[in-house]
Amino acid sequence: MDNDNKVLKPITKFDKENGSKLITPQLEKIFCDYINECKFSMCLRPETIRGYIAVFKLFSKVMPEVSSTEELSSEMLNLYFMRIKTRTRIVGKNTLKTGVKNSTIKTQYSKLIVFFRWLCKNGYLEKNPLKNIKAPQVNYDDFRRLEDEEINKIYSAIVRCSSNTLLLRRDTVMVSLLIFCGIRRGEFISLQVKDIDIEKKEIIVRGETSKSKRTRVLKIHPTLLLHLKDYFRERKSLKTEWLIVSNRGEGGLTREGLKHWVKSVAEKSGINFHLHQFRHTFACKLAEANVNIFKIQKMMGHQNITMTMKYSRSLQTENMEEDIGKISI
To answer: Taking the chain, what is the end-to-end CA distance rounded to the nearest angstrom?
Structure first.
């Protein structure tokens, strides 16, 4: 968490043959200035900044010949998108994969164009090289929610495979928080013990941890309340302020730890899931219970209703027999 507030400095590079320092590329230095402004002037979320850094790292890796702003052009950007669309890379355990989804290209595009706008505003570029390039159209027709049977298998795997009671209670709370609150990854990992009010049955999602930068209060579902009480009894001797503790209980669960947890539970349960699917499931469960969409928007922490409506792609028409039956003539 503390690393998020450090000044980003250009990576010092060395000439291996002569043992001397190489000049840091101009573009990398400028990018560091941009990120520091994002951190300390614009006060963007750490999650947003991490995304910008990840995209720039990939760009630098795929386009090593580009080291200055003068080399940024529409032709060069088209070449970059072609390379990441066609390159072969190793994923998982020595598995080769070629290309990326259109959604990945769009993510790259959306983060790079913000950086290029900043370059234009600060006089580094005369024209945004992405201005005349359209982002790919992405059809989100994939089914992202989790079914009840899949959720039960995840719970069962936790009960069956937990090595001690603390991890059993913790992992159960983790799944219940995701299912019954629908919170984002950054919000989830940033929860502290003080954010939970058992008496009022409320969870506070603090604005500084939220994408919308707005604090919201969520009511605790009865199942989640039961799991939280069990968890608090088990971890009462721990001193850490973070709600979700590490495997050793010495501090909060890190982002890398959370990534490892998802992979481990997926393998043990046989359910190939990712964290954001719980958020889709939360939204769909509320919609299927005929909860007003504006209430869903508030609970999801969306700034506008359009984003909430995008989650409707996880609703299936074959589950709407009862709704069809309501039609009368």
So the answer is: 60
Per the CB < 8 A criterion, the answer to whether 181 and 225 are in contact is: no
> pTM above the 0.90 mark?
no
Q: Domains in the chain and their CATH numbers? A: 2-121 (no CATH), 148-316 (1.10.443.10)
Q: Phi, psi at residue 200, to the nearest 5°?
A: -85, -10
pLDDT, one tens digit per residue, over 202-226 is 999 999 899 888 999 999 999 999 9
Tokens describing residue 258: 């959370």
Euclidean distance between CA atoms 186 and 210, whole angstroms: 7
Name every residue whose Cβ is closer than 8 Å to that of residue 278 and which is 6 or more positions away in sequence: 146, 175, 178, 179, 182
Q: Count of H helices and E strands in the chain?
A: 13, 7
Output the CA angle 231-178-222, nearest 5 degrees: 60
Q: What is the largest CA-CA distance in the chain?
A: 86
In angstroms, the CA 315 to CA 285 distance is 9
Phi, psi values for residue 203, rounded to 5°: -120, 130
State the residue for tokens 């991890």. 167
CA dihedral 61, 62, 68, 71 (to 10 degrees): 180
* 264-283: pLDDT as tens digits: 999 999 999 999 999 999 99
Q: For the purposes of burial, counting CB atoms within 10 Å of the CB of 58, is it exposed (0-12), middle (13-18) or buried (19 or more)?
A: middle
Nearest CA to 50 among 68, 66, 38, 33? 38
281-300 burial: b if 16+ Cβ within 10 Å, else e: bbbbbbbeeeeeeeebbebb
Token pair 């209670």 is found at 169
